Amino acid sequence: MFDLPFCVVHGYVGNITAAIPWRSLGSSVVSAQISDIFIVVQPKKNVRYNQQLEKEKELSTKKKKLENYESVRQLKSTAKKASASMSTPTGESFLTRLTETIINNLQVNIRKVHVRYEDTTDPKTEPVVFGLTIDTLDLASTGANWQKAFIKVCILDTLTVYRN
Asked: Rounded to two decimals, what is the model's pTM?
């Protein structure tokens, strides 16, 4: 799908929890918690560089980006026309304001992440192993006194990188 030079050989997510306050969606915090993430990746074996194939992929990617841009532009134009009748005096629709408020009130908490890279392609040498662990990664909205508000903050606690 992404045509990356590595593949995931093992992985799991222990827990995903979302708290969505449906009755007060426009004024309360929407939170998501993800914990116990473990991923092992290895390089793809027998990957050979092909200049012609790379050029074709690059051209295809550019065409897709252009098509996506045109689609988004058409959708925005259509949505603008459709929401004109539902707009408030300032020109923003209710759905636009609600979406913006939800995004501004979004909290994401990620706990216990372990990503490990293992390269065992050469059987004559020791495998190359390295990785990183993250104990806590919090993304939230806070104000001047670190109270919940509309300024984004990222808190990273205990980032570890290791190599064999």
From this structure: 0.63
